What does this fold into?
Amino acid sequence: MLPDDTKRMRSDADKARLYDRQLRLWQKDGQAALEGARVVVLGSSTLASESLKNLVLPGIGEFVVVDDAVVGAQDVATNFFVQAADAGQPRAERIVENLCELNPDVAGRAVVRAPAAVVAAEDPDADAALLAGASLVIACAQPAAVVQAASRRCWAAGVPLLAATSAGLLAEVRAAVREHTVVESHAAARPDLRLTAPFPALREYVDSVDLGALDSPALAHVPFVVLLIKALDAWAAAAAAEKRALTYAQKKEVAAAVRAMAPGPDEENFAEAAAAATTGCADYEIPGDVARILADPAADQPATPFWLLVAALRRYVASDYAAGTLPHSGSIPDMKADTHSYVTLQRIYKQKAEQDRAELAAHLRAVMHDAGLPADHVSAAAIDVFCKNAARLRVLRTAPLHADRPALDALAADGALAHYALFRAAERFHAAHGRYPGAPPAGAAAETGTETEAETETEAETVAGLDALVERDARALADAARALMADEWGVESPEVPDALAAEFARSGFLELHNISAVAGGIVAQEAIKLITHQYVPHDNTCIIDTANSKLVATRA
Amino acid sequence: MACAVGFERFLKLKAPHVADFELVGEDGETPADLLAKAKVLVIGAGGLGCEILKNLAMSGFKNIDVIDMDTIDISNLNRQFLFRKKDVGQPKATVAAEFIRRRSPGINITAHYKRIQDMPEEFYLGLSLIICGLDSIEARRWINAYIHGLTEAHGFDGFKPIVDGGTEGLKGNMRVILPKHNACFECGLGMYPPKTTYPICTIANTPRLPEHCIEWASVLEWPRVFPSTKLDGDDVDHINWVVEQASQRAAKFSIAGVDFSLAQGVVKNIIPAIASTNAIVAAACVNEAFKIVTSCSPYLENSLLYTGDTGVYLLAYPLHQVEECLVCGQKEGAMSAPAESTLEELIDALKAHGTFQLKAPSLSVGGTSLYFQNPKALEEQTRPNLAKKLRDLFDDGATLTVTDPTLPTGLRVTVTFAAS
It folds into this structure.
């Protein structure tokens, strides 16, 4: 199924209503990014369909499911998007058809080929282009060899990769992102009020307010910004101190000075000013994340609009005009005030933001000139959004999924090292034995559920046999995980609880619907963040162990 | 060696984390029997509800009831995947149940297009477990208190575990509530901030934000201009009227930013909602239900937090029972109020109080009605008391009986007179 203009009949007004609850999170820009995205999914098990469901519903542009598996009993039991009547048919085709039914605006396509063959294709043929041309690749329940090959290919093409595995009550979701830049991170940021060093227009306005000339009701409606700047002035004059590097005790003195100015104890605006003294009297500081981005070598030879803007931001911050500050976002929090004072103050900050934007744009022109790029290479809208969010920029670079050695410290600190080692050991078990720990050997009827008449085992014998296999595999898996940690990762006295290894083996790496749905939810949400370049994707591993109620977001 | 697939495998093999996992119980019942027998009530057939129903069906639950008093809106379709455009206007519970029946014909699912308060006690007594997928704090408080009352009245027969899920944007949480055994919903009420409200004096006199202008139009102007029509947040004409009024006011005060989307958001108190967060929380809920019913693995003790906006943060943690809890604790509230203050002021204080968070409290003392919100006749009869001073109505340290739509039973609140 290809995108078909006749099918996409939805008007903007219809979309605004249909997508209202998500547009409030990522607005039109985020939605447009989703609608322009193409997601390639390797695998078609429950993990794949649960992940895709959460991408089709919000209106992703196009998805491609790559798998040659056919629908079996395990699928009918756990995958909501296949039915008993689909048994024996290509699973990728079945889930694509059923997922497309969720949202007529989304185009889905099945490629009935083994993911291993598609990721291994050496020539720049259609298969290779499939991954390199994707907005995002998701590997669902794939063997390590496929995940690693996909990781190499995506890494080279700069395409983000998500990989998820679901094994009974356990699951993991991992991300490999070479570089991901975010302007609209929606991260919490402190109000930027420039109280210790008011810019000229703010200084002029504050000086124009004569508190002595106001009666009590008028005093009760002076914005706290004005009160705090005046209190700071008075404190600095009295203490013969600079309004710089105030200690906590000094900030408390300013708070006391504000309270002393109040006509009564109940004035809300004075209380707001006193409460804001500790944070508001701190020196201006560029947030740590943004400081690291400014120092990033990627801005030395900027190759993308984001890094061009960062290069311009560097020059801006270093300029006499900015004196170490970022462009102002133009927004201030609500505060107790009369309408006129508040609107005036708001306009002053907005005008400051417009001036800052013009300064940054001038630096950007110089940067682009130096790089030999046309002046309109970065759109005016992009400059606006960048300036509004300059204090919340984020850059994410994770380890690839084809790395040899994980980030042991973070995994250990989060108590997820044994889980991670068991997932990796299980992959090696699979590579060596052609089956996952706890899964019956190939040829057994588990995968398709079609028992032959020759089989005469009773259910009790089957279960007893399976219990014995699970016990054997659990021991082998625990030993393998310990060996991996000790021999390859250099972990001294590696700890792998036997019960945890047993939980892995108990699953046979078969999916339980609920756990795949949890993992699929996380996969989809990370996918949305990666596609929209809004909010911040996780670096880079989530471990879900619902047997021990241990759920952690960590880094490997 | 053939073996069971899906959830069945987990009910037949040994359980590593359950020492005494009984594959055949004393009465001959297997975990699979328990699962097939369990009767689960799903409260809410919305974003979480659709996911919960799908998850239950794919986990081997055979007897499901679903209750929701709402009908399908176009804005539900970005996440409530059991509904299609043709279903808009139909009851959510009915359409969701019909979809599940089609996908999984072996499941016995019953829809109730009703309020939870309208179901009889026998119905609740017949349940094994309740899963809540609600966006209303009020309904969650009600069912929590109701089930605690049921447990008290009927002992084990009234004991119904509640698995409660909630989401907002890219954040979600889940709670496993075992009545009388661990923290109840009310114990954690403080974690839910009260709805954003704007002071009337700001709305009326000193608007600064577009929201203030919208509140002015919807809360003050609408009832004045249309005294007999309730403002309907889903009626495009109603919201357009609010936008027009609010825009005029905003222009007068040089305030920017009033538009349809913001107006509807403020009027309806819209909470952003997406499929992925609902998927995570709903699946975590049903997984706990599956573990509680089958005992195949220990259940979560007792809370899970997920936030996905800046990286991912996941935390499973035990929320502790609050000794003074109005529902599962000592069940008596205390307040202090000036003897000179009025009954109306006391009622406002009860609404604003962090522990009580009541909606429309009715008060009586020692069998005498102080103020009743309804019926109308009683409201009119008791209304004069609103302006009376507390000291003229009852003594210092009197225990008032307070009833409120958020609570299924009365609440006892002792009021001590504070120096004014």
User: Anything to note?
Assistant: Residues 68 and 190 of chain B are 26 Å apart (CA to CA). The radius of gyration of chain B is 24 Å.
